[in-house]
Amino acid sequence: MSGEGSSANGNKKVALITGITGQDGSYLAEFLIKKGYEVHGILRRSSSFNTGRIQHLYGQPACHTGGQMHLHYGDLTDTTCLISIITKIRPKEIYNLGAQSHVKVSFELSEYTAQVDALGTLRLLEAVRTAGLEKETRIYQASTSELYGKVVEVPQTEKTPFYPRSPYACAKLYGYWIVVNYREAYGMFACNGLLFNHESPRRGENFVTRKITRGVAKIQLGLMKHLELGNLDCKRDWGHAKDYVEAMWLMLQQEEPEDFVVATGEAHSVREFVEKAFSYVGRKIAWRGEGENETGHDADTDELLVKVNAKYFRPTEVDLLLGDPSKAKQKLGWKPRVTFEQLVRDMVEADLQLMKKNPEA
Ligand code: NDP
Ligand code: GDP
Predict the structure, then answer these.
(1) Which of 8, 194, 216, 287 has a CA positioned 20 to 30 A from the CA of residue 260?
(2) pLDDT one-digit tens code per residue, 122-131
(3) Which residues are near ligand 1 (CB < 6 Å)?
């Protein structure tokens, strides 16, 4: 249970999070700070503000002046900075969450996605070796259900063969295997979390769930006419990010490094997500037409609320992801707490509050 032990830096447990400014990074930072960790995060240089999701943490005296949270400028494409940060802070645990994480964008930024998501993982592992910490530092790798892609079995387990369907998934496939290889070759404590989609009010605005809940809030407040979406019939196993970061931490507290599926075991379509989200503001959707010509209308007033736009279709789609989290339940004692209904409600409510405060958001 090294995560509970003392670190090279006095008695503090030291963790490094790449991707701390992202959805998962922000929840994980909160989680680790509550557990008493000294949390370090890698911050990308950006011309605009990119710390919105962790601003509330950085504002706390314990973090800002008490030394419980530190940010370091860095990038997964820059080997030197990774070596220098890891050598300096000697983390007990590293959570590699940094990534170009958007599947559709990866078709347009395929080389960059490979640089960050594939080679970035290798750079991080090598930085740990260069710092001489391969026997001390435990590493969590943010692997993904996208590896299953065109699924060969349902539900997917740790043993299901992979069939990636996007440059993002291909890059993450390299990340997965290089972690397995370094574990076997150098005895490193490195784990892959095969996490299925997980969402929250902090989810990036161009992922489908958040796009829908933002759209519902804007339409409800009269700030937008209708929502445009791509494929409505894909199914995902959607959980809440808050639950999933706990599974990441649990993986690093085990006796042996292993890979785990983290999922709810329930799949819902994009269409169902739309219907559920609108139902929280009292609107029922009546669907009309098919494929590119499909539209969704308010069943009472006939007002157009949803329109399919082919520009959101992907060159190769992942139709169905459904995870079997039995191993995580059994070995980690982990289970999801937030249901699909609660997740959708939480996101719609948060976006209604956000848009009421700031209609430009
Ligand atoms: P986000 O897109 O919200 O966050 C990604 C983070 O990576 C951000 O902090 C981003 O910085 C950072 N980042 C991007 N490029 C680089 C780079 N070149 N160097 C360093 N950092 C970089 O993703 P999530 O929080 O949702 O996901 C976390 C991880 O889990 C990702 O690796 C993702 O691929 C993976 N994953 C996510 C799933 C999900 O459903 N959310 C499912 C399975 C896996 P900035 O804020 O500056 O953009
Ligand atoms: P992904 O599972 O990591 O690709 O997460 P996304 O939230 O980006 O997409 C989930 C599913 O929703 C995919 O099958 C998409 O094709 C589908 N989808 C339908 N319309 C949209 C849309 O407008 N934006 C996004 N991002 N996805 C959409």
Answers:
(1) 8
(2) 999 999 999 9
(3) 18-19, 21-25, 42, 44, 46, 50, 75-77, 97-101, 116, 142, 144, 195, 197-198, 204
